[in-house]
Amino acid sequence: MARSGVETSAKSRPSDKTGGSGRWNVASRILAAVPANYLVTSLLTACVARLLAQCLAVNPAEASVAATLLSFAVFATIVLFAFGLRSIFQLWLWLFVAGALGGGLFWLSPGMGARL
Predict the structure, then answer these.
(1) What is the pLDDT of residues 25-66, one digit of tens each?
(2) Are 29 and 88 in contact (CB under 8 A)?
(3) Do the beta carbons of residue 27 and residue 85 sit within 8 Å?
(4) What is the pLDDT of residue 116?
(5) Are 89 and 29 in contact (CB under 8 A)?
(6) Which ranges in the chain belong to alpha helices (H)?
(7) CB–CB of 58/52 below 8 Å?
(8) Quick check: 74 and 101 in contact, CB under 8 A?
(9) Mean pLDDT, range 64-81, rounded to an integer
(10) Percent of the chain beyond pLDDT 70?
(11) Are 96 and 88 in contact (CB under 8 A)?
(12) Given this model, what pLDDT does residue 111 score?
């Protein structure tokens, strides 16, 4: 005997391909998009400002302004990636690697010269 209506078996439900339950997935992406993004962007901004001022002999005030202008594009790009990547693990891995590189460069940069 045929049943009419919608079948609700496990095969008919859409699978979650984003790597996590709904609420934790969104919460993790929001944490990556705002506070973690701010940390990574500020580290990269400080590195760019120091590298411009010390390696390219740009006036420190102009180096800070240029790095700050670049930081707006970096922040927006990371926000787009935070909600565009399928894997939360991949998102946090990229943020960790970018933060470690930025922090490492920032930590090593005082050895290249004076403070900014």
Answers:
(1) 999 999 999 999 999 999 999 999 999 988 898 999 999 999
(2) yes
(3) no
(4) 52
(5) no
(6) 22-31, 37-55, 60-84, 88-108
(7) yes
(8) no
(9) 96
(10) 78
(11) no
(12) 65
Q: How far separated are the first and last CA of the chain, in Å rounded?
A: 80
Q: Residue holding tokens 């990547």? A: 85
Q: Are 53 and 60 in contact (CB under 8 A)?
A: yes
In the chain, what are the domain boundaries? 22-112
CA atoms within 13 A on the CB side of 10: 0
Closest CA to 67 of 80, 54, 79: 54
| Residues 104, 61, 70: CA angle, nearest 5 degrees | 60
Residue 57, phi-psi category: left (phi > 0), alpha (psi -120 to 50), beta (remainder): left
CB neighbourhood size of 96 (10 A): 12
- Helix (H, G, I), strand (E, B), or coil: what is residue 18? coil
Give this prediction's pTM.
0.74
